[in-house]
Amino acid sequence: MTKVLEVVDISKYYIHKTGWLPGKKICALEPISFSLERGETLAIMGETGSGKSTIAKLIAGAEVPSQGDIFLNGQRLDPHNYRQRCQHIRMIFQDALRSLNPETSVGAQLAEPLHFNTDWDQEKKTSHVVETLRKVGLLPDHYNFYPHMLSSGQQQRVCIARAIILEPQIIVADEAFVALDPSIRAQIINLMLDLQQDMGISFIFVTHSAEIVKHIADKILIMHHGRLIEFGTTEALIKNPQQELTKNLLHAESKHNVLTHSTIQE
Ligand SMILES: Nc1ncnc2c1ncn2[C@@H]1O[C@H](COP(=O)(O)OP(=O)(O)OP(=O)(O)O)[C@@H](O)[C@H]1O
């Protein structure tokens, strides 16, 4: 397999300033390193505030690391050049409706990245948008719909369409499916797995759900207080966890009935 992403010693500190006092340095993420192969799925787990979203944002370019480097196919990504990476690394957020523009049609929102990143004519852009709608299980008619006219599952499909429209190498999903009904969530996760197989995309999922992780992840990274405490294959971490937290996170009974057994079998 080919190494698509390499994260080398990235860390993130924030300065909390209150009044006249000197700012207090808050460490959101201590230096961590890991890599991801093409077509592989990495799950990031940990308790609240452990630094999971910080890693997701640093990889997607939404935040700049305090130190360290990120390499895509061996090429160092400039943390200040969002355009360089937005074609190759896309992010999907938890709140689908809020991440879509309510005043722009679905088709126009999907065509937008094509205006900025291709020199295609209008006809080619439209046919690529329609083809992408089909890939995520939507219809050509949805081109002219506005986000509020769609169900929550369809809105998340539009977000996935927007994420794949430039045929990226990596998709980062930060608790992207937590708000969906269990049956819709299972459909969306199966859609992501189909897209991964067709397009060879690598995924990074931030999630609290042991069921989702066991269903989709090849590797798991466990975070605790901004530190990576365990990293390995899903099989190894389930069979032989080295940390109590890993055991608790992976063997916790689902509180939310995230995926039912029948949907996992799909
Ligand atoms: N913009 C920011 N300014 C200051 N501190 C921040 C900022 N973003 C995150 N932090 C702090 O960094 C730490 C890690 O936050 P992060 O959002 O990465 O955690 P998380 O594991 O994703 O949590 P959750 O599961 O609740 O989303 C937390 O202590 C948080 O308060």
UniProtKB/TrEMBL annotation:
<keyword id="KW-0067">ATP-binding</keyword>
<protein>
    <submittedName>
        <fullName>Peptide ABC transporter ATP-binding protein</fullName>
    </submittedName>
</protein>
<keyword id="KW-0472">Membrane</keyword>
<dbReference type="InterPro" id="IPR027417">
    <property type="entry name" value="P-loop_NTPase"/>
</dbReference>
<feature type="domain" description="ABC transporter">
    <location>
        <begin position="5"/>
        <end position="250"/>
    </location>
</feature>
<dbReference type="InterPro" id="IPR050319">
    <property type="entry name" value="ABC_transp_ATP-bind"/>
</dbReference>
<keyword id="KW-1003">Cell membrane</keyword>
<dbReference type="GO" id="GO:0005886">
    <property type="term" value="C:plasma membrane"/>
</dbReference>
<dbReference type="Pfam" id="PF00005">
    <property type="entry name" value="ABC_tran"/>
</dbReference>
<keyword id="KW-0547">Nucleotide-binding</keyword>
<dbReference type="GO" id="GO:0005524">
    <property type="term" value="F:ATP binding"/>
</dbReference>
<dbReference type="GO" id="GO:0016887">
    <property type="term" value="F:ATP hydrolysis activity"/>
</dbReference>
<comment type="similarity">
    <text>Belongs to the ABC transporter superfamily.</text>
</comment>
<dbReference type="InterPro" id="IPR017871">
    <property type="entry name" value="ABC_transporter-like_CS"/>
</dbReference>
<dbReference type="GO" id="GO:0055085">
    <property type="term" value="P:transmembrane transport"/>
</dbReference>
<dbReference type="InterPro" id="IPR003439">
    <property type="entry name" value="ABC_transporter-like_ATP-bd"/>
</dbReference>
<keyword id="KW-0997">Cell inner membrane</keyword>
<keyword id="KW-0813">Transport</keyword>
<dbReference type="InterPro" id="IPR003593">
    <property type="entry name" value="AAA+_ATPase"/>
</dbReference>
